[in-house]
Design brief:
The protein is an alpha+beta fold and about 450 residues long. Helices cover about 20% and strands about 35% of the residues. It starts with a helix and ends in a 24-residue tail after the last helix. The structure holds zinc ion (ZN).
Length: about 450
Amino acid sequence: MSNPTRVMLLVLLATATWGITAFWEPDGGPPEVDDAPVLGALYAAPVERVETHVLGRGETLDRVLGRAEIVGREMADLLLTLREYTNPRRLRAGSEVTVRRWLSDGSPRAVELRLNADSTVRLDRESLGWSGRVMVTPTTVDTVFVAGEIENGRTLYEAVVYDDKLDLPPAERAALVVELAEIYAFKLDFTHDIQPGDRYRLVYEREARPDGTARNRRVLIAEMVNQGREYGAVYFEAGGDRGEYFDREGRSLQTMFRRYPLDYVRITSSFAWRRYHPVLGRYRSHLGTDFGAAPGTPVKATGAGVVSFAGWDGGYGNLVKIRHPNGYETRYAHLRGFARGIAAGKRVDQGDVIGYVGATGLATGPHLHYELRQNGQALDPRRMRLPTKPGVPEERLPEFKELLEQRVALLETYAPTPAGPRLARAVDETERTPSGEN
Ligand SMILES: [Zn+2]
């Protein structure tokens, strides 16, 4: 029983006892002051009336204020004060405008404008005009534990989305699975590798608003047991404020390069030292991989680096070259066009869209030609062991170990390892080739 409920009941009991006593002892007189029952809080009559207006499509704030009968000088003053916080023209359709009025004469007391999910401007009417302040939506931090086992005929997605023990909004459950797939993108292929009997458990932190939506959320620690092998993932801010996921030994879960520059891949031609070229009509080596894709499909940088070239280059057509650390270079050819801002000197992150699939240069049809080179030497990205991103730096290891201990304790407390022999931890998984690329 929650505390307020218990207090309420005590109040009711006290009232009831007194009532009965009064009934049975009609001559007893009023009860002693000390025995007086506790009364519930008294609510003062409201001083204000609240109305909410919604900005319609194509409607201006002036119109909405007009509807709320805030006009003329009053409106001008209000808009002037509001401009210190936001440009009234930038308010979108659907924005809520709350008007609080004095009950006594109906005159406006305050106007509130929700800027976004996290902040509201409140304008209070004072004797000399309006004064404003920003109110931040309060949040609470929830820690959520998610654990389960994949049943026959179910995917990880279904297991999490239909988990009735889990207290999370449906959209956030789906987002959580996507996040998990991202964390393990370099280790596990969620669409092919997850099998019945696989297990997952994780600790998830969310900063929630009063309406239940999350402002921030993050998986703190996760563990996947896939076909008997354990894959740990711990969030740690090793370099500055941008955190990454590491395994329990402090090794990065990510490789420097993603295997593919497209989200969904259909390989039409592999890396080969000798291949008949359909356009040139002769044999020549093919130092890259061709991916068939619809024209316009976004092409993503496979690794972080700096664009060294973005333009036309003969048979390559529209080409983007990216320089990566340790002498690596990637090339993306036959592009229909470049993503906004992509030019020599531009820094890109792994997964950033750099261009769109096309058929420019020596291409028979729309496809992406992708190359990975190191020190000028062509590599076969489908077969090579992709280099891993750096792990937790030596000097941060003690800190990492301490955090890991706390996170593991959380995991073991709320989502304990099922009884049975401890599973062998996967050793170095970078050698493992993801399925679906044979
Ligand atoms: Zn090619």
